[in-house]
Amino acid sequence: MSSYADRLSALREQLKRDRLDGFVVPLTDEHMSEYVGAYAQRLGWLTGFQGSAGSAVVLSSEAAIFTDGRYTLQVRQQVSADHWQYVPVPQVSIASWLGEHAPEGGRIGYDPWLHTRAWVEDARKALAEKGAELVAVDTNPVDAVWPDRPAPSDATLSVQDDAAAGRTSAAKRAEIAEWLQARKADAVVLSALDSIAWAFNIRGNDVSHTPVALAYAIAHADGTADLFVAPEKLTDAVRQHLGNAIRLHDRTAFAPALKALAGKRVAADPERAVAAIFDSLDAGGAKILGLRDPVVLAKALKNPAEIAGHKAAQARDGAALVRFLKWFEETAPQGGLTEMSAADKLQAFRAETGLLKDLSFDTISATGPNGAIPHYKVTEQSSLPIEPGQLYLVDSGGQYADGTTDVTRVIPVGKPSAEMKDRFTRVLKGHIGIATAVFPDGTTGAQLDSFARAPLWEVGLDFGHGTGHGVGAYLSVHEGPQRIAQPFYPGGQSLEPLRAGMFLSNEPGYYKAGEFGIRIENLVLIVEAAIPGAEQAMLGFETLTFAPIERDLIEPALLTPKELQWLNAYHARVLEVVGPQLAEEERQWLEAKIAPIA
């Protein structure tokens, strides 16, 4: 297994043994997670792809890897064109590709613990038109040929204090019980890891950069619940916190428990629960209600304690970022910096707070051409030297017990070109367009998305990712259901009504392939907007992230008076929030960096 070609060959041999003509390999786990533990990194092991979203199909004589626009460049750098076809999604679905490429009468395997039921139905229908069959496997064939596959994490759980959570687990379960009773349902299956962490006020260390634990839960209409988690992960403190109303079981008992719900009305989320969960409920004779996980929206609407904690985390994180920006500006021109060493230094500044639990994702530390890869992941092999004439883009965040942060800044090394300044300023205009938006309660993210793109559209430019994603409260840095994006952008719909209390990112960008990338990202909170004479409830955004926006990249002539007013007011607020945490030399640097622009 010394090469990816060997791994692909080994998988094909295993498929022959399993009497399969093909197999589908998604990048997810049995909880439909975006970020997964090392044990579930099957796509990366098989292909070399290091992105956070994608899938592959392996047939006997051809193979294809499916990625969206965020990874157009990255997939070509990391996955060999000698063995893999590059297929864009959502332009081409896996189901439609299978319908065209699967052999007549072929047997295409899939792991029912890694796909939704809707995906299974679409793939089965497409294959049936070709006279082919979709076959559920009991053992994933990738696992069978992965000789050193890591074991799932055995890290212990921890308690998220009620003061930080803002509500007790009992209160949250009571709300779920009311939701069930209103729908005349007996139970709901919770399989999304962040839903379980939020509902039970627990956290874990089973997934890199996301404080969740591998577990399942069944919540009941009487307010009790069954939690399925490996026993060795439970400390006495966690057991005491969970209490008697939560029955504890080994994680391996989950599927049998589903089959034991015979005759019960059981809710399960079609988007977040895998096909195997629905299959087990069907096998047991339960009446399935295909409803969205009730935790999803409740978790997205942050309570006052979560908002206060997030603001504290942002202030702390902002000071660490300012120290990094000062260090970078002074160090980069001397030479010797690399993408990897810069990322390590930023992490060190965050760690100096003494409160950093983890990064919230792998830092995107990208200079020059790597900056044009929106979700670039720096490695020892890919790390480039940071040189004069380049733009350096750093997208990073921290996990703190009181909040999850995510911020992107761009720094010129030396004098930027006129093109760089024009593009940066247009991205800034789009960022300000979102930051200052006022909109009716119930507006969707899809309706706002063009506010961020209009300044780029004016000159025939655009960017190939969403403008904003939801963010958790010491949970996932990418949290739904809210988004700011085009209606059906890669990664999901953006038609969820926006509501006060939701966190979102505001991150328009621009990417010139092979040369540079630009993105300006702050996190925002949806708040009620007080508009004199308004005839309906209106909402707006409160910016939560505080760090300077690079003035050397701004072309003031492109900004309107209102945009300049916003920028200067924002920078004054940066000094107010971050300044008191800085040493005198750091504060002087910041004051010069954010001096008002006339």
Mean pLDDT: 96
Spatial gap, N to C terminus: 61 Å
Sheet-strand content, in percent, reads 15-25%
Characterize the overall form.
globular
GO molecular function: aminopeptidase activity
Protein name: Aminopeptidase P family protein
Pfam families: Creatinase_N, Creatinase_N_2, Peptidase_M24, Peptidase_M24_C
Domain Peptidase M24 C-terminal: 538-597
List keywords for this structure.
Creatine Amidinohydrolase, 598 residues, alpha+beta, 19 helices, 28 strands, hydrolase, Creatine Amidinohydrolase, Chain A, domain 1, 6-stranded mixed β-sheet, single chain, EC 3.4.11.-
Describe the structure.
By secondary structure, this protein is an alpha+beta fold. It folds into 3 domains: 4-145, Creatine Amidinohydrolase, Chain A, domain 1, CATH 3.40.350.10; 158-296, Creatine Amidinohydrolase, Chain A, domain 1 (3-Layer(aba) Sandwich); 301-593, Alpha-Beta Complex (Creatine Amidinohydrolase). It contains 19 helices and 28 strands. The strands form 8 sheets. It has a 6-stranded mixed beta sheet. Strands 12-11-10-8-13-14 form a 6-stranded mixed beta sheet, with helices on both faces. Strands 21-28-27-24 form a 4-stranded antiparallel beta sheet. Strand 13, helix 12 and strand 14 form a beta-alpha-beta unit. The mean pLDDT is 96. It comes from Sphingomonas agrestis. Residues 7-138 form the Creatinase N-terminal domain.
